[in-house]
Structures are given as C-alpha cells and as structure tokens.
C-alpha cells in the first residue's frame, strides 16, 4: 500500500492542522515541503498536482485531494478516527461540520487577513491596505469573542470533552496569531482560548508539526 503524501508548508495553518493529526494518530505518511515564501506552489510541477496552486494537498494512491477540511474529513473517516469525526454519532458529527462550515468566513478570513498585513506584508515590503486591516481587525476581535463565548463556552473543547477536527482546524489558526503584535491579538483578553490552546501543546505530534512555527515564534518573543 502506498504511503499518504502531504504537500504543504509548516507555516501554513491548514497544513499544520493536517500534519498535527497525522502525527498525533501515528498515521504513516510522507511530508513534502512546498515553500510558499519561495513560491514553490506556483511551479509548473506543483500545478500538475494542484492546478489552483495552493497548499495543503494530499495524495493517497491515485486520489488527490485539496481543501483542508475535505482532507481532514477524509483522514478521519479512512483511519476511523471516531474521536475526531464520529462515524456513529450523527449529532456530534453535525456539530463538527457546523463549526468547520463557519470557520473559513467566521475566523480564518479576518485572522489570515490581519496576519497577512501585520506579519507577511512587512517582511516582503508589500503595501498595507490600512482600511481593510482596520475593518478585519474589528471582525477578528468579534470572531474571537464569539469563539470563546459560543463555540467554547464552558466546554473543554468545541464539541465537548474531546478534541475534534473542529478544534485542530481552529487551534492552528488562532495560535498562529501569537506571531503578530499585541495591538491586534492579546491572548490575555481571552482566558478560555488561552487555556484551550495549552491543551494542544502537550499532545503527541505538536512539537514535530510546529517545530518551524515555534522557531519563528521564539524569535518574535
């Protein structure tokens, strides 16, 4: 049986979510780095794998999948990771899907926009759209407040007492914000999120899936 291949960049939040789950569940795989900073996603060679020139991508035998949440669901169902995405509890699975459907617009859009303009753009000398940054900064604060009060509430994780696909997807997105200025993301304002984040940092697979991220974070601190 051929080994599952994950193409991605460890500085990509969706890539880290998938890699974290693969490592946490000891699923045999090969990780092939596609450096976004070097523009490797734009090469003709990679375009043959994903014509949209985005990461992450997985190949499993003859199957190629794009879109991180599709990949997460595929891995969970193929390897019967019921704790992440139940195959038997319809209500629990729908709650996970409900969060994942909200995630891209509800959290990732403002989070990735603020991250891009406050971290990526200055590194590469890219002009900052101050109006868009201000707008998405407000949206991000609203999203984080809703994440803490509604999605987490008084629960240990989004759906209940165990981490699901919803948590892994949101963890890499929110923890990524620690790279930016406290003017845009001050974790001390979100004690429930802070406590929730710390749970992942002791899990199997965290260090290996976040080693490059943690090096960058250490330099920022």
From TrEMBL:
All copies of domain GST C-terminal, residue ranges: 89-221
GO molecular function, one term: glutathione transferase activity
Compartments where found: Cytoplasm
SUPFAM superfamilies from the UniProt entry: GST C-terminal domain-like, Thioredoxin-like
Record keyword Transferase present: yes
InterPro entries: Glutathione-S-Trfase_C-like (IPR010987), Glutathione-S-Trfase_C_sf (IPR036282), Glutathione_S-Trfase (IPR040079), Glutathione_S-Trfase_N (IPR004045), GST_C (IPR004046), GST_Theta (IPR051369), Thioredoxin-like_sf (IPR036249)
Pfam family, one: GST_N
One GO cellular component term noted in the UniProt record for this chain: cytoplasm
PROSITE patterns associated with the record: GST_CTER, GST_NTER
Sequence ranges assigned to domain GST N-terminal in this UniProt record: 2-83
Gene3D superfamilies: 1.20.1050.10, Glutaredoxin
UniProt-listed GO biological process terms: glutathione metabolic process
Keywords linked to the UniProt accession: Cytoplasm, Transferase
PANTHER family: GH16740P-RELATED, PTHR43917
Name of this protein: Glutathione S-transferase
Source organism: Cavenderia fasciculata (Slime mold)
């Amino acid at each position: 049986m051929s080994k599952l291949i994950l193409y991605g960049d460890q500085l990509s939040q969706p890539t880290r979510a998938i890699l974290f789950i693969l490592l946490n569940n000891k699923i045999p795989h090969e990780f092939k780095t596609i450096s976004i900073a070097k523009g490797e996603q734009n090469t003709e060679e990679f375009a043959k794998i994903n014509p949209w020139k985005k990461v992450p991508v997985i190949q499993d035998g003859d199957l190629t999948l794009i879109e991180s949440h599709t990949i997460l669901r595929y891995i969970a169902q193929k390897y019967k990771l019921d704790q992440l995405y139940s195959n038997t509890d319809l209500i629990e699975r729908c709650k996970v899907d409900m969060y994942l459907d909200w995630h891209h617009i509800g959290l990732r859009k403002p989070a990735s926009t603020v991250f891009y303009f406050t971290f990526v753009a200055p590194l590469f000398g890219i002009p900052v759209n101050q109006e868009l940054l201000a707008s998405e900064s407000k949206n991000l604060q609203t999203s984080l407040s809703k994440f803490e009060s509604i999605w987490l509430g008084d629960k240990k994780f989004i759906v209940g007492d165990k981490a699901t696909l919803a948590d892994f997807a949101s963890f890499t997105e929110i923890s990524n914000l620690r790279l930016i200025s406290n003017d845009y993301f001050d974790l001390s304002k979100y004690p429930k999120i802070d406590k929730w984040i710390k749970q992942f940092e002791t899990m199997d697979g965290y260090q290996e899936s976040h080693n490059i991220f943690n090096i960058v974070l250490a330099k920022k601190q």
